[in-house]
């Protein structure tokens, strides 16, 4: 069995094109039913704002990987200069069940999240023949930073500028020097939102606050799931979910839209339908709400494992 620590995975070169391609493949395989993914349980105790989530999954096709992700989110950690989220993935041989890798996946999780976003952006930009786009990002912690890297690497030629908002006034210090000429730091979320062709939430917001009318034909990447008020539904033309049963719970924006605005599963489309079904409506204002599928974590983690082997990274543990 191989253990990959945080320094091992961070030392690997991220191939965003490859990983977004894996998300496309996993979405197709998932849609075809070649997967097993139980609804993930939430472990809560003492301070109920904290949670540890179990995410087991198998995804078939060319990916063919099984495993489990164990991810903790403790929001108050930030007050003590500790990262909010910590996670580990165990990968098992699909034919024998033998575990062959343990991966420290805080960074891998951020890369997976941005890769899923990247697949939606890729389809959106290609379908709109997008160029000279404006991107707004609210929240610039590890997830926001990873998204900026992915966006600029994959779609930088299409993106004219980024508007960036974060509650932390020292946000500018986190922006890599190579991107600073395209990034404008704003003093309110609305300044980043109002002219955004693509708007991405990467916060740990406890309650929704986005209630403004968005730019026409814009894409809303609701990565953090709790930033949009339920009344925002009236502005949307297409609502995408990765899995309705997963995302319509835990006080997500989708659950609130369901309870307060009458949004139903049949009013949404799946990620696979958005990526592959050309007959589905995809124009107007599009909102993507990803709860996070464990099959995507397994697909991305396997790629990290393969790259680590290729570059002789990690530690071999005794059986």
Describe this structure in words.
With 319 residues, the protein is α/β, with parallel strands linked by helices. It has two domains: 2-109 and 294-316, ornithine cyclodeaminase, domain 1; 128-289, NAD(P)-binding Rossmann-like Domain (Rossmann fold, 3-Layer(aba) Sandwich), CATH 3.40.50. Helix content is 31%, strand content 23%. It has nine helices and 16 strands. It has helices spanning 6-10, 16-31, 106-128, 142-155, 189-193, 244-247, 253-261, 271-276, 294-310; strands spanning 2-4, 35-36, 42-43, 51-59, 65-73, 85-92, 99-104, 133-138, 159-165, 183-185, 198-201, 219-221, 238-241, 269-270, 286-289, 315-316. α4 links the parallel β8 and β9. α2 (16-31) crosses α9 (294-310) and α3 crosses α4 (142-155). The termini are close together. The mean pLDDT is 95.
């Amino acid at each position: 069995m191989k253990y990959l620590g945080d320094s091992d995975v961070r030392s690997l070169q991220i191939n965003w094109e490859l990983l977004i391609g894996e998300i496309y493949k996993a979405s197709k395989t998932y849609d075809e039913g070649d997967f097993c993914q139980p609804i993930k349980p939430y472990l809560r105790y003492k301070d109920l704002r904290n949670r540890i989530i179990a995410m087991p999954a198998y995804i078939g096709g060319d990916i063919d990987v099984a495993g489990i992700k164990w991810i903790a989110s403790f929001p108050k950690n930030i007050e003590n200069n500790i990262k909010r989220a910590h996670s580990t993935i165990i990968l098992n041989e699909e034919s024998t069940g033998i575990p062959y890798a343990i991966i420290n996946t805080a960074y891998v999780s951020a890369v997976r999240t941005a890769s899923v976003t990247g697949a939606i952006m890729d389809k959106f930009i290609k379908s709109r023949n997008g160029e000279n786009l404006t991107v707004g990002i609210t929240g610039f912690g590890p997830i926001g930073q990873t998204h900026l890297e992915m966006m600029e690497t994959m779609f930088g030629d299409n993106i004219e500028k980024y508007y960036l908002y974060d509650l932390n006034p020292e946000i500018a210090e986190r922006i890599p020097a190579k991107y600073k000429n395209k990034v404008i730091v704003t003093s309110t979320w609305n300044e980043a939102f109002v002219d955004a062709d693509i708007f991405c939430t990467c916060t740990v917001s406890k309650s929704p606050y986005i209630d403004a009318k968005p730019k026409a034909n814009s894409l809303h990447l609701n990565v953090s799931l709790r930033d949009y008020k339920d009344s925002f539904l009236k502005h949307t033309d297409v609502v995408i979910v990765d899995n309705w049963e997963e995302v319509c719970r835990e006080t997500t924006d989708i659950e609130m839209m369901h309870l307060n605005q009458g949004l139903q599963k049949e009013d949404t489309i799946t990620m696979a339908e958005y990526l592959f079904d050309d007959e589905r409506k995809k124009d107007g204002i599009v909102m993507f709400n990803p709860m996070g599928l464990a099959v995507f974590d397994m697909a991305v983690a396997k790629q990290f494992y393969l790259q680590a082997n290729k570059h002789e990274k990690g530690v071999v543990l005794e059986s």
